[in-house]
């Protein structure tokens, strides 16, 4: 029996090593990108001009009653089989 590794096993080992190196490098790139983000600019791009959003009138309920009313309508519209 030879001490030389099976060529297929060697290819798999090399593949795994490459992905380990790539994973470390990709994580470093990701970390640098996160650290360099201008948070205020990102928020402006997502939400627009940066003006505070008008939340509308303050809710006096959790919405659970309204949710249950919707469920009841769905049950009536499509009875279970």
What can you see in these coordinates?
This protein is flat. It has helices at residues 7-36, 39-47, 64-77. The chain is built from three helices and no strands. The mean pLDDT is 85. It is mainly alpha-helical. The chain has a domain at 1-49.
- Calculate the mean pLDDT score and round it: 85
Rounded radius of gyration (Å): 28 Å
User: Which series of helices and strands comes N to C?
Assistant: HHH
Q: What are the segments in which pLDDT stays under 50 over at least 5 consecutive residues?
A: none
Strand content: under 5%
- Describe the biggest sheet? none
> Please, how many helices?
3
Residues in helix, %: 55-70%
Kindly state the number of beta strands: 0
The assigned structural class equals mainly alpha
Kindly, what is the distance between the CA atoms of the first and last residues, rounded to a whole number of angstroms? Answer: 67 Å
Q: What best-fitting shape do the alpha-carbon axes yield?
A: flat
Provide a compact summary of the structure:
The chain is mainly alpha-helical and 81 residues long. It is built from three helices and no strands.
């Amino acid at each position: 029996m030879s001490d030389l590794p099976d060529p297929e096993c060697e290819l798999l080992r090399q593949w795994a090593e490459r992905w380990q190196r790539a994973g470390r490098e990709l994580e470093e790139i990701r970390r640098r990108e996160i650290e360099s983000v201008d948070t205020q600019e990102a928020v402006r791009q997502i939400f627009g001009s940066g003006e505070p959003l008008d939340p509308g009138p303050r809710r006096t309920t959790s919405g659970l009653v309204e949710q249950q009313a919707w469920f009841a309508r769905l049950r009536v519209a499509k009875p279970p089989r």
